[in-house]
Amino acid sequence: MGIRAAAFTLCSLLGVTITHGAPLQCGGAFTESKGEFFSPNYPDAYPNNADCIWTIQSTGNRIIELTFPFMQVEYRNWDAHCKFDAISVYDGAMSDNRLLRRMCGNETQSFNSTRNELTVHFTSDSTFPDKGFHAKWSFIDVPSLSEYPVTDAVTPTKEPTDIKCGGELTEPQGEFSSPRYPKHYPNNAKCIWTIQSTGNRIIALTFPFMELEADWRKDCRFDSVSVYDGPASDKRLLGRLCGTQTGNYHSTRNELTVVFSSDSSTTLTGFKAEYSFIDVPSLSEYPTIAPTEDPTGTNCGALLVEPRGEFFSPNYPNDYPKNARCTWTIRGNHIIELTFPFMDLEHRNWDPRCSFDSVSVYDGPLSSDHLLARLCGNQTLSIKSTKNDMTVLFVSDSTFSKKGFHAEYSFIGALEN
Ligand SMILES: *[C@@H]1O[C@H](CO)[C@@H](O)[C@H](O)[C@H]1NC(C)=O
Ligand SMILES: *[C@@H]1O[C@H](CO)[C@@H](O)[C@H](O)[C@H]1NC(C)=O
Ligand SMILES: *[C@@H]1O[C@H](CO)[C@@H](O)[C@H](O)[C@H]1NC(C)=O
User: Which residues form the CUB domain (predicted)?
Assistant: First the structure.
């Protein structure tokens, strides 16, 4: 059995469907005097990588009026060009190049054609689909088409040159970082790096530095770095990071994608990533992971700088997810005291090392030299740092989830010297 056949069998066994490149049915050609159309799947999210064209054609002295009762398309407020997902309306055929407007976000404009044809082109990129749009048209009788001045070909507004990010990387090793690194990254950024190897080489990726806005309760929903095995559209999410989480990842095939996105508030230093290709005997040895629709729950952790605060295991007080790994870094120019008002983690009384699920508390960064305590079961002791950093690592394995923990910390007195 050849490598390709072996890989195929493995994918079949795992029930993975690779939809990369499958054509999407969308768009249409209308000649009725009124009607409506919708983005694919509306009102559910449109698919990634959509490319749909609708043409509306009238006859005689009738122009076409087009309205958008609803529009919600991926949008960044620095992206005047609608570089990611967009709806473009053309007066005439697309090839005439008379662009009336390229839109994203929630614009609800109306348009009139100046002739017997109007074209709507909808495109989406490989990430962050939104609800899409609802469009309606009707013909309007006019005395004569010649009364309508033909609009010149319009080139869309130039995108701001400030934020350049993302890219395609094919060198066997390299590094990249968040926009403006080590200065704070911009709000509303979205950057996609695609790393591509060839032959029997997979891609290894590490993050030597990460400091993003943290959202330890809900899946890094503010600012995040997502790592995908293959293109982002395959949804084989290897990890989503925020706060000071770091991780090591490797692809199982010739492509790895990193997506950085930031929301409209709070920016920090960002991240630095390094990658290299690894020679492997055969790609088919690497099982393909299943697509993940919603990674909620397995991402967690935060950078905590307030003088006092609390944090919880993911989903608390409901059961924590399996295979979780969360890091909280508490930072202040003070000794830090940490207590656990509640703890309920998987525990065996023959396992004093907490080998299954555990909370580890480090004096400073993660390092076995700095381990102050490893906890599981219902231990509720209080722990003090000797440094101005304390790191709390929560890990769960693939069996027996419990309620988790509630932790409280406070800065107690300045560091000596
Ligand atoms: C459109 O988006 C803006 C900014 O996000 C928001 O303030 C406004 O309410 C939205 N309008 C509609 C009709 O959704
Ligand atoms: C389109 O034409 C109709 C009829 O003349 C007019 O009422 C409407 O305001 C026009 N719409 C736009 C967007 O120009
Ligand atoms: C912790 O667990 C032990 C043994 O299971 C039990 O005896 C004890 O009551 C528990 N303590 C709390 C505070 O739940």
Answer: 26-140, 165-278, 300-412
Q: Locate 134 and state its tokens.
A: 């609802």
Ligand 2, atom nearest to 140 Cα: 4
Q: CA torsion, points 283, 288, 291, 294, in degrees to nearest 10?
A: -100
* Helix or strand (DSSP H, E) at 6: helix 3-14
Q: Does 304 score more than 90 pLDDT?
A: no
Q: How confident is the model at residue 315 (pLDDT cuts 50, 70, 90)?
A: confident
Rounded-to-integer distance, Cα 123 and Cα 48, Å: 9
- Give the neighbor-by-neighbor strand order of the sheet with 110-112: 34-38, 132-141, 62-72, 110-112
Q: Do 271 and 214 contact (CB within 8 A), yes or no?
A: no
Atom in ligand 2 nearest the alpha carbon of residue 110:
13
Q: What does the DSSP 8-state code read for residue 77?
A: T
117-131 per-position pLDDT tens digit:
999 999 988 778 889
Cβ–ligand 2 contact at 109 (below 6 Å): no
Q: What is the pTM of this model?
A: 0.47
Q: Could you count the other beta carbons within 10 Å of the beta carbon of residue 237?
A: 22
Give the integer Cα–Cα distance in Å for 138 and 217. Answer: 48
Closest ligand 2 atom to 109 CA: 13
Q: What is the dihedral of CA 92, 97, 100, 104, to 10 degrees?
A: 120
CA distances 151 to 98, 104, 138, 144, 264, Å, are 6, 22, 20, 16, 36
* SS3 at position 145: helix
Read off the pLDDT of each residue in 223-246 and give the average, rounded to a whole number.
85
Q: Which helix (H) or strand (E) holds 359?
A: strand 358-363
How many of the other CB atoms lie within 10 Å of CB of 413? Answer: 9
For residue 194, the model assigns a pLDDT of 93
Give the integer Cα–Cα distance in Å for 212 and 242. Answer: 5
Instruction: Report residue 145 as tokens.
Output: 């088409």
| Six token digits for residue 69 | 């009762």
Distance, in Å, from the CA atom of 214 to the CA atom of 268, rounded to the nearest integer, reads 10
Question: What's the distance, CA 398 to chain centroid?
Answer: 24
Q: How far is the centre of ligand 1, averaged over its atoms, from the C-alpha of 87 (Å)? A: 17
Q: Is 111 in the pocket of ligand 2 (CB under 6 A)?
A: yes
Q: Residue 160 in contact with residue 134, Cβ under 8 Å?
A: no
